[in-house]
Amino acid sequence: MILFTVLAAAPFAFPPTAAFQESAPAAAVVAAKEAADAKSAYEAIRAAYDAELDRYTTAVNELYASEEWAAANKARDREKMDALRAALPAVDGEAYARRFLDAAARYEGDAGQALFYRGVIDTTKSGELLTSAYESLLSKHAGSESAFAATLDLSWRGGGLAEETFAGLVERTLASDAPAAVKANVLYARASVLARSAGKPEDMTPEQKAAYDADMARVVEIAPDSIVAYRVQGPTFEKERLQVGMTAPNIVGTDVFGNAMSLEQFRGKVVVLDFWGDW
Amino acid sequence: MYPHERSLVERLKDQPFALVGMNSDEDLAKLHRRMEEENITWPSFWNGPYGTSGPISARWNVHTWPSIFVIDAEGVIRFKNVRGARMDAAVDELLREMGIEPPPVVEHEE
After folding, report:
1. Rounded to a whole number, what is the distance in Å from the CA of A224 to chain B's nearest CA?
2. What is the rounded CA–CA span in Å between residue A268 and residue A188?
3. What is the pTM of this model?
4. Measuring CA to CA, which of A47, A50, A105, A269 is 20 to 30 A from B31?
5. Which of A204, A169, A209 is nearest to A187 (CA)?
6. Are A272 and B48 an interchain contact pair (Cβ–Cβ within 8 Å)?
7. pLDDT digits over A126-157, tens only?
8. pLDDT bracket for residue A28 (50, 70, 90)
């Protein structure tokens, strides 16, 4: 029985105020206060954005449940359907991206600044803003949890960046002293973007395939317990460990209330393991 | 989903059976509220703060939600992605292997 731990894995523990550890005590106190300020400032903008998104989702659901929509759908009236959708209160992501960017400027030199760059990345559709937010986040706060989270998404956001910009961002991050987990995310993103540019992974040229394989192998090598390494190994793991008739690999983690839980503790019972989400 | 899961858990509450979730929501506070509203009483692992990008679903190569594994009392994977009536039938079959006659399925709303 091979055990693996997931939530206890090292890549998830980033000390958010590490940059201040060498500061004088007085400066450290100021920095800690600023970081707390940054977090609440970030959360205020984020909450407003999330509330707008929720309102939009509710409006979409109400529209789809309405008689007016059903009638237009039944009549295959595309124009009417488009008009009904266009009348929904769309969320202006760019306005929030600008708010995050303005806030980032106010927290220069503060570890909490990283949060605002992540906010920009989560809300903008502008390639230019996305690029500058990634550049700032990775050059100034590569060790932050925000940098980890934002680069974990880079595999599908990378397409929003200009090709050369993306390549440069990857190169600079790999050459920096960013944590291995962040470098692994960036390598995974580069390989994924390359495969997608070819259409399907099978359609890559031999040179592209070699570059792809090298990046993916490096992901597993430098951060073997990271999410992206698990992704790389996922298909093999499924084939070798998750087939009907095989003993289920143990899962050692926590439940949704933070209590330790393992799959093996249910041994002796018939178990339905249900990957779910409330959406 | 929830009505079916609730009725499964209720029907087999006195049997050697466990419904174990692997939850992929990012916001735990919101999830806790929803679990209370929906009367979700069975245990769930948490896939971490990155939602569907979390480590456990990555490890298990899960890309579609919901995904289901039915595991017998010995810990062996016996069925994958059975839903609705097929999920009830799969669980009942494994209970019968243990010499247990499970209570019958009652009608439930899907």
Report:
1. 11
2. 39
3. 0.82
4. A269
5. A169
6. no
7. 888 888 899 999 999 999 999 999 999 888 87
8. low
